[in-house]
From TrEMBL:
Transmembrane stretches, start-end: 16-38, 50-69, 81-103, 115-137, 143-161
Keywords assigned: Membrane, Transmembrane, Transmembrane helix
Superkingdom assignment: Bacteria
Organism: Aminobacter carboxidus
Name under which the protein is recorded: Transmembrane protein
Transmembrane found in the keyword field: yes
Amino acid sequence: MRMRHKLGQSLPSLRLAILGAAVWGFAMGASAFLTVLFDHWETPVRVRTVVLLFAFGGAVAFPAGWTLARLLSHSRGRETAFAAAFVSLGVMTVGLTALLYALQYRTYYAEWHAPAFTITWAFQFVFTGLVALYQFAVLGLRLYFPGGFLALFAAALWFACRSR
């Protein structure tokens, strides 16, 4: 009962969840766009796909990251709130964006995979997902720097000031 009450208190309001998701998604998409722009990508369709993936990943991650940060920093000081928000928003944003990337990656390669729910398909499903996560870690994480990192710092600071 106590945990349910604590979780209920930690959930963002509907207004904060929607506005925060929109702003956070925009910030993550903008970070990816600026990095890709400075790398001189020449395929607008791929740029659009990457930017939308990062924006959607950030938008989906904001309410979950906010809730986790509130749960971790409940009844604690500003330093703990800052650290909780920094880690929670960062991990949720990277994790959910990587998951969306892996799902898109899997969808692309599904055409060449074995029929669903066979042993071969299970191996292909698992290893395609693992390769996608590895590829995101190597190639995708750099798109968060420096813009996404600065946005994360600002969001964690705002969270710490707002939560106390």
